[in-house]
């Protein structure tokens, strides 16, 4: 059988229990649940620091660990199903169930409820935390430390306009595989802002093109598009800000940038990914 290696926990010697009867391997495992315990961890294709990075997992994200060896864990991310290798030291026990997510672009964890204290670490948009108490304007975390409470929102509370979230990430550096406020790639931007609006999305642009929204006809003059439409090329994705402007994470400027769709379309068509392959429109949430 043919499997997508990106989202299938299957390798030559080991596979997820759910694949019994579909693959032949030496052993199967149901895996053990853990959570990301760092601001982010890179998900590598192979268990080596110089192996390609396909994506990232961020603080509080749930993973299933199928194997650990020499400091590397072979995992599947619960939210989007991505499979790869992360550093074992970046994971921790599941602990308390998250109660909130970070709704600010980025925030800090302090050792006490005081902004003048030296911060311990930071959290990116959509990081999940368990809040145990609130002291003034600061939320105490089950894992220790305090976060400025207005930078958090209860799980299940979402943004109304995912395109506005993308605008808040303007000028974020481009980073292949990135999905934090320190670095994003094109599909990482789309997945991140949709998650903030409560819309689950797969990780890569080809998956997003296949699974999200309904198709919108692309006219020669690129007319008829709306705010929030997802514009796809074979290997790239951006979001429409309005009828004519696109916001996307692009290697052209190495940032999240806004430009006229017509300008981006011509450059991309002539120099990289070819013509627009589709436009997808999401139903109102």
From TrEMBL:
Top-level taxon in the UniProt lineage: Bacteria
Pfam families (UniProt xref): NLPC_P60, SH3_16
InterPro entries recorded: NLP_P60_dom, Papain-like_cys_pep_sf, Peptidase_C40, SH3_16
Keyword line: Hydrolase, Protease, Thiol protease
The keyword Protein biosynthesis is assigned to this record: no
Keyword Nucleotide-binding recorded: no
Domain NlpC/P60, first and last residues per copy: 156-280
Family: Belongs to the peptidase C40 family.
Record-given protein name: C40 family peptidase
Organism from which the protein derives: Microvirga puerhi
Lineage: Bacteria, Pseudomonadati, Pseudomonadota, Alphaproteobacteria, Hyphomicrobiales
